[in-house]
Amino acid sequence: MEEGRKLQNAHLMLIFPDEIDFLNSPLISAENREYAEDELMDSSLFLHKFQQEKMLTDFKMEMKNLLHEYGFQTYSTAEWDSFLNHSEKAFIIDFNQLQLEEILFTHLDEEAMPDGYTYKQEFVIDGLAFNSWIAISTANDTNLLKNTIFCETVLKDHIEGLFLMNNISGEVYYDYNFKPLSEEEILDIVPNAAIDISLNIMDFIINNSLEKNLLKQRGVYPERFWRYIPSRAKPSPSYDRSGYIIVE
User: Fold this and answer.
1) What is the C-alpha separation between 158 and 177, in angstroms, rounded?
2) Over 80: is that where the pLDDT of 248 sits?
């Protein structure tokens, strides 16, 4: 796929925020008032496990290492002159906001049973989301206009269950197993989010460039979405939805 091949050895300027925002959504939604940072941390299940400065340092390192693996040359804001000297494709990746959010999710299970009724079981479970808003633009190619994409990596408590019917009494009940998020899963959200975001950046650039070229050359939109597959070092067609949302 031509657009994917063109990305090899491309240059990326990475602009990171000064910090990762922490948001305790269950606490904020419980009462409509401002909370001090220590209140948000003290009442959290997960946020207190992270140190903001270290988390940002780890995220930067993970992101740079992954993009290098994909064949990109990355630059910091101290290297603008060197970055702008390249005539090859050069992209500016501006992480406008990074956010770690503690959040509650509703888990709903329903099933039609032989007695003709549909049964529902609902749980509120704990979760953690790493949210990012990323502005992507080109330094020397107007083919790709500036867009901001939203990416989300989500972790939730694990629930597996099913409805069962007692063959004698006809009683229907819900049998389930509950497994809370492990310490390892929680702390791994940084490298996992970096993987998701790096691939979303690749996918956005590939698909946006392809769409612009097809519209310019043939006046049509692409029929399929393309995903970058690291193990193959190239994009492959996919009918799945993208992992990002274009917000502007």
Assistant:
1) 8
2) no
